[in-house]
TrEMBL record:
Species of provenance: Gryllus longicercus
Protein's recorded name: Endophilin-A
Keyword Cell membrane found: no
Domain SH3: 278-339
Record-level GO cellular component terms: cytoplasm; membrane
SUPFAM superfamilies for this protein: BAR/IMD domain-like, SH3-domain
Record keywords: SH3 domain
GO BP terms in the entry: membrane organization
Family recorded in the similarity comment: Belongs to the endophilin family.
Domain BAR: 24-258
SMART domains found in the cross-reference section: BAR (SM00721), SH3 (SM00326)
Gene3D superfamilies in UniProt: Arfaptin homology (AH) domain/BAR domain (1.20.1270.60), SH3 Domains (2.30.30.40)
Length: 339
């Protein structure tokens, strides 16, 4: 291996002078060229964008792929530009086991038939989840990662180069200030002009890149909207799949001795527009109420409780429930809500 000793010594000397220069700036014994307030605001916004984009990217990946081992594996496959492994989701594993159990118990039995139907539903849910993860990766995660690996790395590189140019400029100012001879002053002024020109040019390049963060935010907004729309479609598909399963289970005739017929839980609407579930209604408390005796329930304003009719003869009070607490509550203090 060839070593350029002169270059090595020169680089070491430059690094040492940089350390000394930065130390003097920290101590306030050396002049430091300051950038304008607008540039500093742009740089701060860039740092904030990088910070939160990285956090949001990590959180989104954790939501889509909860298993950290799978995330590491996907990252490695992306780096070597290989296709990610095709894994079954937990829902699909559950569906396979349910279908296998149903076939083992016998498709002709009520329980076996139900297991097969629920297993098939889990399979469809798993496929929908897989499609959602693929779409979310394409519309949201990939653009954010490209931004961090591309534009943001370029900004960091140019800002680092700008800092180097600033240190060169300040070093030239110090040399000019310390020059004693006429020749030394002329050389220092020439170096200062060159350093100032390079610093100004690099500052302009970096400023243009920092101003491009606004365009990046607009692009991220579009990606966020697509991600939300993908979530809407995914949850709508899951809702439809579960509704189909509910209808299929409701049509099954359970012949197992002692088994009650399947009845899906469906809220019922009352004439007043509120919703009743198992005889209970939700109600919001309009103002505080102190129980008069042990048969009543004390209320606090804005809390939500469950209520039901006591009897047809009782017109002024309802039976209220708050967790394990029960007691009569006056109707006048309540506003009925929908489930």
């Amino acid at each position: 291996m060839d070593f350029n000793v002169k270059k090595l010594v020169r680089d070491a000397g430059t690094a040492l002078s940089r350390v000394v220069q930065l130390t003097e700036e920290k101590l306030g014994t050396s002049e430091k060229t300051e950038l304008d307030a607008h540039f500093e605001n742009l740089a701060e916004r860039s740092d904030t964008t990088k910070l939160w984009t990285e956090k949001i990217l990590r959180d989104t990946e954790a939501v889509l792929t909860p298993n950290p081992g799978n995330r590491v594996e996907d990252f490695l496959f992306d780096k070597i530009e290989k296709k990610r492994p095709n894994r079954l989701s937990n829902l699909e594993y559950l569906g396979l086991d349910m279908m296998e159990a149903g076939n083992d118990f016998g498709p002709g039995t009520s329980y076996g038939n139900a297991l097969i139907k629920v297993g098939q539903c889990q399979q469809r849910l798993g496929q929908s989840e897989r499609d959602f993860i693929t779409a979310a990766n394409h519309c949201y995660i990939t653009p954010l990662r490209k931004f961090l690996d591309g534009e943001m790395k370029t900004i960091i590189k140019e800002r680092s180069l700008l800092e180097s140019k600033r240190l060169d400029l300040d070093a030239c100012k110090n040399r000019l200030r310390k020059a004693r001879s006429m020749q030394g002053q002329q050389n220092a002024e020439k170096d200062l002009r060159v350093a100032q020109s390079e610093f100004d040019r690099q500052a302009e390049i970096t400023k243009l890149l920092l101003e491009g963060i606004s365009s990046s935010h607009a692009g991220h907004l579009r990606c966020l909207q697509e991600f939300a729309e993908t979530q809407v479609r995914y949850h709508a598909q899951c809702h439809q799949i579960m509704q189909d399963l509910q209808r299929e289970l409701g049509s099954l005739s359970l012949t197992t001795p002692g088994a009650a017929p399947y009845q899906p839980l469906v809220p019922q609407s009352t004439d007043s527009g509120t919703t009743v579930q198992n005889g209970l209604q939700r109600a919001r408390v309009l103002c505080d109420y102190d129980a008069k005796d042990a048969t009543e329930l004390s209320l606090m304003v804005d809390e939500v409780i469950l209520v039901q009719e006591i009897s047809e003869d009782e017109q002024d009070y309802l039976m209220g429930e708050r967790g394990n607490q029960k007691g009569k509550v006056p109707k006048a203090f309540l506003e009925m809500l929908a489930f």
